[in-house]
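Session log. Operator J.P. requested a structure for one protein chain; no other inputs attached. Running the standard single-chain path with token output.
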Amino acid sequence: MHPPQQPQQGPYGQPTQQYTQQGPPPGWHPPPPPKKSGKGAAIAIVIGLIAVLAALGGLLKFIEGSGEVKLAGGDEQAVATPAAASKIPKPDAQQTEDLLYELRQIDPELDRARSIDRARNSCVDILQGKSRSQTIENTRLRFDGVAEIDTGEARAIVKLIENGGWCKPA
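Structure written below.
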């Protein structure tokens, strides 16, 4: 056994407590073991996913090919269906590459696949005959956030879409 140690002075002139016992200091407890997620959580997630898919499948039964949903009261409400979304003009591979290159010249942050979707939505504004100022403002709002787009840059983006050769009625 070791000889008893003399108390040592701490940083404030008070003796520090020395432990002469083996093991952890009094009052110390080991941390609790981590919780196990187990198979129960995975099963609950799968069941929830199945329920969501079943609900979506039921909703799709109400949707007709015309893009309208028949409501119980007999009223009709227009909604976007996958068929309607596929009618939005889409640039081919070369046009996509050219568009991304031109967008990158406006702001490097616009060089993203999501920018193509935003450009397609701006194309819809053009094809719907919205006013020039409304189309430019909608484009500014769509592209702003990824990069800080001002009205002049939005105007340039609209010109890219118009001159790209892909934004035409299907």
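Operator note: The chain has six helices and two strands.
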